[in-house]
Write a structure and sequence with these properties.
Helices cover 34% and strands 24% of the residues. It is α+β, with helices and mostly antiparallel strands.
Length: 170
């Protein structure tokens, strides 16, 4: 039976490293999703801005850093979030939501409660990267540990049959 592990990250680098580790260790295979608001995809410091202007590099506005690991959807407009970039199975779920449904509604389908779904929606709204991973019961602790090692916050493990996290991973 698949379990869901959810975490938020502050930076694309932490997110990418965690996803690569999980994928490389075959802890979740194709059940890894990443979601971020479009405007927060590439936050640069001043040195990066100057370097890209001098070198004429375009500003990244997609999840290309994850292309080797995740299938990306076109930008989506999600109620209460605006334009988001999503990769992995969650992108497919978001594209098929009924009109007016948002991220919190999509997370309910993974077993999260309404309260926790709204919490994660708020985290995405404020610029965090959401990572959602479905994996086998035997691998769920390894996935949660890896997310934590790479800076993941608010890590929780969920089961669709329960109305609370299996164990709030703090």
């Amino acid at each position: 039976m698949l379990r869901t592990v959810v975490a938020v990250f502050k930076s694309p680098v932490q997110t990418k490293e965690a996803v690569e580790e999980i994928q490389g260790e075959s802890l979740a295979n194709s059940k890894i999703s990443v979601l971020v608001r479009h405007e927060y995809v590439r936050q640069r410091n001043v040195n990066e801005e100057i370097a890209s202007e001098l070198a004429y590099y375009p500003v990244e506005k997609n999840l290309d850093a994850f292309n080797a690991w995740l299938v990306q959807a076109p930008p989506l407009n999600i109620p209460d979030l605006g334009d988001v970039l999503a990769a992995g199975p969650l992108a497919n779920v978001l594209m098929r939501l009924p009109k007016g449904a948002g991220l919190a509604d999509a997370l309910l389908g993974y077993g999260l409660t309404g309260e926790r779904s709204r919490h994660y929606e708020h985290e995405v709204r404020t610029g965090q990267y959401l990572v959602l991973i479905q994996t086998e019961h035997e691998k769920v602790n390894s996935v949660a540990n890896t997310l934590q090692c790479y800076g993941g916050k608010d890590i929780e493990k969920w089961n669709k049959e329960l109305d609370h996290p299996l164990y709030p991973f703090h």
